[in-house]
Amino acid sequence: MAKGMLFLALGILASAMLIANTPTMQVVVLLGISIWAFCRFYYFAFYVIEHYVDPEFKFAGLIAFTRYLLRRKRR
């Protein structure tokens, strides 16, 4: 929980600093779109791994999945 809150605080701080540096509507909109797109990518990656790659594999994140793939290719 604390790790998630720290990530949230870091994201808010970085976004606020970007907007304060260049306070235009274009920057706000592009930042919002990029945040949304990265969130959707991460969700999609987990969905694909869970449903199409290996439904039995329990992973902690994309790094764990990469390790899984590397181990699987060696065998």
Automatic annotation (TrEMBL):
Keywords, ordered alphabetically: Membrane, Transmembrane, Transmembrane helix
Bilayer-spanning residue ranges: 28-49
Domain of life: Bacteria
Protein name, as recorded: Putative membrane protein
